[in-house]
Amino acid sequence: MYQRKIERELRCPLEYGLDIFGGKWNSRIICILFIKGSLRYNELKAEMLDITDTVLSRTLKELMQNNMVERRQYNEIPMRVTYQLIEKAESVIPIFETICQWSKKYLAPDDINNSICGQFLKQDGEFFILAEE
């Protein structure tokens, strides 16, 4: 796993948040695990579509180090491992929902991709998946 040579200096809380759930893959993994629940590695990879094994594995390790994702290993043969969100990661879902609303407002309609990360909204305090249009 990549280790910084110089310790990162976080000057404000926004930098901390963006460091944890920013980037290309972190938010996608969090959204997918929120909507789909606990998934095995290959199930998660199938949802991601264009991610390599190396990048998915590294990103999951980083999310686990940041206490966003939990890896559960079951004592079964063959071995079964699942990944799921923990409370800290679930707490960023309202932030993602707000970002999705903002993006839909300012992004051209032709640029909107109906990816799973854009398919959740809040209604009466509960999140639900949008129907495909």
Automatic annotation (TrEMBL):
SUPFAM superfamilies: Winged helix' DNA-binding domain
Alphabetic keyword roster: DNA-binding, Transcription, Transcription regulation
Gene Ontology molecular functions: DNA binding
Domain of life from the UniProt record: Bacteria
Annotated HTH hxlR-type domain residues: 12-111
InterPro entries: HTH_HxlR, WH-like_DNA-bd_sf, WH_DNA-bd_sf
Protein name: Transcriptional regulator
